[in-house]
Amino acid sequence: MTNEPGQEISSHVRFAVQIYLERLRRKFAFADYGTLFGEPAWDLLLSVFIATEQGGALSVTQVSQTTDLPLSTVQRYAGLLEKRGLLVRIRDDSDARRVLLRLTCIASLKMRAFLERSEPMPQVPAGLN
Description:
Layout: H1 11-29, H2 40-53, E1 58-59, H3 60-67, H4 71-83, E2 87-92, E3 95-103, H5 105-116
Antiparallel strand pairs: 1-3, 2-3
Protein name: MarR family transcriptional regulator
Domain HTH marR-type: 50-98
InterPro entries: HTH_MarR-typ, WH-like_DNA-bd_sf, WH_DNA-bd_sf
């Protein structure tokens, strides 16, 4: 999740990385509880969004490593996200055995809209304020 030297990181990517790191922090804080607090689809979307926005793509193995999810979980959720039109799998030109993951245009637009926080936050429910 690094950027090329001299290339500016967009506010979308910066916010996505912040969310991603908070999720990892939560995951390790509650590691004794296994996957109880996990959201594999969201973790996969965040990691692939960050890579896509920086002009790259991640392999299934790279997503597994960066999200700390089992490879089988990444493959399963990649399939679900692909069926819903949020993700595409692409064969790597340099290694036909390797599959790269990229967000679709609609997924990128939805992620950017989410990350912009353009909508006002809903009113805090009674009892939480």
